[in-house]
Amino acid sequence: MTAEEMKADGAPLEGTDITPKQDEGVLKVVKREGTGTESPMIGDKVAVHYTGWLLDGTKFDSSLDRRDKFSFDLGKGEVIKAWDITVATMKVGEICQITCKPEYAYGLAGSPPKIPPNATLIFEIELFEFKGEDLTDDEDGGIIRRIRKKGEGYSKPNEGALVEIQFEGRYRDRAFDRRELRFEIGEGENYDLPHGLEKAIQKMEKSEESIFYLKPNYGFGSTGKEKFQIPPDAELQYEVKLKGFEKAKESWEMNTEEKLEQSCMVKERGTQYFKEGKYKRAALQYKKIVSWLEHESGLSNEEDTKARSLRLAAHLNLAMCHLKLKEYSQALENCNKALELDSSNEKGLFRRGEAHLAVNDFELARGDFQKVIQLYPSNKAAKVQLVTCQQKIREQHEKEKKMYANMFQRLANKDLKVPSGSTAAGSPVYLGVALCKMCW
Question: Least packed by Cβ within 10 Å: which of 205, 306, 324, 395?
Answer without folding.
Answer: 395
